[in-house]
Amino acid sequence: MADSLLARAAAARLDTLAAIFPVVVVTGARQVGKSTLVQSHPALAPYLRVTLDDATTRAEAIAEPDIFAARAGRMIIDEVQRAPDLLLAIKAAVDREAQRVPGHFVLTGSANLLMMKQVADSLAGRAVYLDLGPFTRSELRGDAGTGRWTDLFEHAPAAWRDLLQDKPAQPDDWRAAVSRGGIPVPALRLDSAERAQWFASYISTYLERDLRNLSVVELLGDFRQTMKALALRAGNPVNQSGIARDLGVEQRNISRWIALLETGWLISRLPAYSVNRTSRLMKRPKLYWADSALAMQIAGEAEPRGAHLENYVLSDLLAWSALHAPRPGVFYWRTTDNTEVDFVIEHGNRLLAVEVKTTTRPTPSDWRHLKSFVAEYGDSCHGALLLHAGDETYQVADRVVLAPWWRVL
User: Fold this and answer.
1) Which pLDDT belongs to residue 258?
2) How far apart are CA 287 and CA 233, in angstroms?
3) Run of H or E residues at 127
4) For residue 175, what are the β-bridge partners?
5) DSSP-based three-state secondary structure for 268
6) Distance of alpha carbon 257 from alpha carbon 35, whole angstroms
7) Is the pLDDT confidence value at 277 over 70?
8) Residues in Cβ contact with 115 at an 8 Å cutoff, skipping those fewer than 6 apart
9) How far apart are CA 389 and CA 200, in angstroms?
10) pLDDT single digits (tens) 152-205
11) What whole-number distance in Å separates Cα of residue 372 and Cα of residue 337?
12) Counting Cβ atoms within 10 Å, is residue 150 exposed (0-12), middle (13-18) or buried (19+)?
């Protein structure tokens, strides 16, 4: 099925936000489907659509931003970060309205505009942000959804086995899934050899164009090496001084480059869950990539690792989280004695702990840290889930359930 025909879980959220806020900003990494989402959305069909990827259009937006923002009563503006002054004109247009018009502007951007101070300040109080990530496994199947995280929160762990088996689920090889990733073109249209070529072009475009639009990076070779080092460390706490030492690069450059990668939506830093009771916890964030296949390509890894399956699960979790208000928090948990849980989801006042393993036959050592988390947080912990690569779903301890990853995603 062509990616243009696949519905996105975020479509309903876009409808909700455009009915309330004068400016809706759809943000995410390049090529994840932002333009397709807004341009194919039926409710936005009457809008004037322009893209700042077009040189002539961009020049007009830069030269006369106020006139540009007044072109139509309702506008879709693609890649708005390419003309930052246009945001001030949009702010002025919204402020001139006696009564703010919901959905006046729908903007897309391949940069995290909240991390660009000028942009964030200009739209404060006027814009709402919708994060769009790569396609989820559900979306790639044509189901326009995310993993069954809401269902897990709505049912007690004792009911999860029946819940997860209540409808057909297609078994999948985790290695193939994470190697495909969720960026539409490589995931849906290309074989493995073509995928490698596509990602090489994708990375070059980022380095040669998008990155230069965000900041001046003079040591491009060192920047590439830093990207590879970070990709090889996917799923691990970020140790900037260690990376700087290994590469022979100044730590301040590593710090700045990580921030640039985050602004470009290529990486995300997963914070540690810090509401501890008795244990001393690690505070350093873990680093993941926007897409598991992208991480493999940047690292030059032909075979996926467990960290890539974690990355794949996290992408789904973040897509699910972006659909809610208030937004559920996604963290990891690790104590100084190396007791660790891959993901902790905080939804309302309840916690769900998730561990990801590539084994097909989990053993007690695989779920012992989940038991520790349940014991540590008591009634605050709704349940704990171990995702594995086997076929069986069963409960192994108080509020601890094991399930195939493909039944949840």
Assistant:
1) 95
2) 8
3) strand 127-131
4) none
5) strand
6) 26
7) no
8) 259, 262, 263
9) 30
10) 999 999 999 999 998 888 899 999 999 999 999 999 999 999 999 999 999 988
11) 12
12) middle
How many Å is the Cα radius of gyration of the chain? 22
**CB distance 269 to 287 below 8 Å:** yes
Q: In what order do the strands lie in the sheet with 340-347?
A: 329-334, 340-347, 350-356, 381-388, 400-404, 394-397
CA 81 to mean position of chain CA atoms = 19
Return d(Cα 409, Cα 405) in angstroms, integer: 6
CB 40 within 8 A of CB 153: no
CB 49 within 8 A of CB 76: yes
- The enclosing H or E element of 396 equals strand 394-397
**Residues in a beta bridge with 404:** 388
Distance CA 93, CA 72 (A): 11
Q: Name the CA dihedral angle for 399, 400, 402, 403, rounded to a multiple of 10 degrees.
A: 40
- Give me the helix-helix angle, 55-63 and 85-96, nearest 10°: 60
Structure tokens at 388: 């594995």
CA separation for the pair 309, 296 (Å, rounded): 11
Retrieve residue 356's tokens. Answer: 């990801």
Task: Please give the Cα distance from 265 to 268 (Å, whole number).
Answer: 7
Q: Return d(Cα 263, Cα 257) in angstroms, integer.
A: 10
Q: Is the pTM of this model over 0.85?
A: yes
Q: Answer yes or no: are the C-beta atoms of 81 and 119 closer than 8 Å.
A: yes
> Going by C-beta distance under 8 Å and a sequence separation of 6 or more, which residues neighbour residue 98?
none
Q: Smallest Cα–Cα separation from 264: which of 408, 390, 81, 83? A: 81
Name the token pair of 164. Answer: 């997860």
CA–CA dist 131, 157 (Å, integer)? 30
What DSSP string runs through 68-121?
A: HHTS-SSEEEETGGGSTHHHHHHHHHHHH-SSPPTTSEEEEESS-GGGSHHHHH
